[in-house]
Write a structure and sequence with these properties.
Belongs to the CCDC25 family. This is NFACT RNA-binding domain-containing protein. Helices cover 33% and strands 21% of the residues. The chain has 2 domains: 143 residues, no CATH class; 36 residues. With 181 residues, it is α+β, with helices and mostly antiparallel strands. Strands 8-5-3-4-2-1-9 form a 7-stranded antiparallel β-sheet. A two-stranded antiparallel sheet has the order 6-7. The longest helix has 13 residues. The radius of gyration is 19 Å and the shape is elongated.
């Protein structure tokens, strides 16, 4: 089961800037395995916590996240940490899903990073009940087929070709049409 939340900057009727997290460490394993390249992963630094993900829209980089979405994710991950929810001045780490590294010897739900330089940090001074309460009102519980969702997403990118790639490959529109047919 996966919990979905909508931050302040969420675009209605899209998955842009949608927050989601697993129910427990076993659910986190599925989320780690089936994340998407457009997902960011959030966790309380050096403490046990939920794995919270933020789905970015096409063309958005992790450095372009609206401040409201970043704050919502940080508050949610802090709230869902047994130690972190009781502690002030908690550091939250976040990184692209593709930077998560899972090796055979790791515990369930544990991850490392391929490139530590891609891990950013944000400090949460204290819990903000207004943000948590607003997010909880948007919470939806779903049972998605994460593998199937990933397959659909990845198959869409497989056939996407930029205009520059087409220009480099074909001398004319007619040549491209001949190749297409």
């Amino acid at each position: 089961m996966v919990f979905y939340f909508y931050p302040r900057c969420h675009a209605p009727n899209t998955e842009d800037f949608m927050i989601y997290m697993g129910k427990d460490k076993y659910e986190n394993e599925d989320l780690i395995a089936h994340g998407l390249p457009c997902d960011l992963w959030f966790h309380v630094d050096d403490m046990s916590s939920a794995h919270v993900y933020l789905r970015l829209p096409d063309g958005c980089d992790m450095r372009d996240i609206p401040a409201e979405a970043l704050e919502d994710c940080a508050q949610l991950v802090k709230q869902n940490s047994i130690q972190g929810c009781k502690t002030n001045n908690v550091t939250i780490v976040y990184t692209p899903w593709s930077n998560l590294k899972k090796t055979a010897g790791m515990e369930v739900g544990q991850v490392g990073f391929h490139d530590p330089a891609l891990v950013l940090k944000v400090k949460v001074d204290r819990k903000n009940n207004e943000i948590i309460n607003r997010l909880e009102k948007t919470r939806q519980e779903r049972h998605p087929d994460l593998a199937a969702e990933k397959e659909v997403y990845m198959s869409q990118d497989e056939y996407m070709v930029s205009n520059k790639e087409l220009k480099d490959k074909y001398a004319s529109v007619e040549e491209m049409e001949d190749d297409f047919m």
